[in-house]
Amino acid sequence: MRYVSSDEDSGRWDGFPFRDGDIVISTRSKSGTTWMQMICALLVFRTPDLPAALGTLSPWLDWLITPRDQVYAHLAAQQHRRFIKTHTPLDGIPLDPRATYIVVARHPLDMAVSLFHQSANLNRERMAELTGTPAGPPQPPPPIPEALLSWIDRDVSPADAMDSLPGVLWHLSDAWQRRHDANILLVHYADLAADLPGEMRRIAGRLGLEAPTAELVEAASFTRMRARAEDLVPDPAGVLKDRGAFFRGGRSGAGRELLTDEQLAHYERRAAAMAPPDLLAWLHR
Fold this sequence. Notes:
- By secondary structure, the chain is α/β, with parallel strands linked by helices.
- 45% of the residues lie in helices and 7% in strands.
- It has a four-stranded parallel sheet, sandwiched between helices.
């Protein structure tokens, strides 16, 4: 399937020349993409002092802001083990046996809350300038609970709105069906938060890399990453108003706290209609 939005196009993967050992990080927005990129960078380079900005080391291949040929040339010139960012589900990119695909999952309600705050931090005029799409008049955001309920109820095709609830659960359901494949690794955001050393060891083992030292684990902590926002935030084109706000909180449970018991039950019924129960049990725990 091809996924296209105003600033992404999964068709840019067509013909990509993979190498042995490539790592593809496939996540939904605000679900741990930058965190996983940092973990991979630390495991590959074995030092917190990375040789370049994280977005340079791990480019976003689908992003229309940077020309496709330029991204391909940049990746071809890299000598280290490559780790590439995408927000495209696995059914929209080539699945090459030489590569390992890491899919990071986050509770959809927490992801939606982070997405709400991220939207308020975007410079719409700058994005319009980069994409050539006219920016509409600024609209005041609704209260977060109201926005969250609208997000839960939005009925849309996953391919048309990948960060909608249908889009999130489509992305994760597809990965869940492939979780037993040797080159597919699912990681839960809550597990990273609860046991970062253990999860980094597990990821390193699946990638055939040396286990992380305490120094590397500490460098991957949310506190340390927030302190290094200028080097780590994926904003090469300057579309964020405040890079420090990118690492806002990172905790789990924020979405559920905004809903009443009845509203939460409504969300769970909606989710149950879109994803298998074993995935939801893992995702919602």
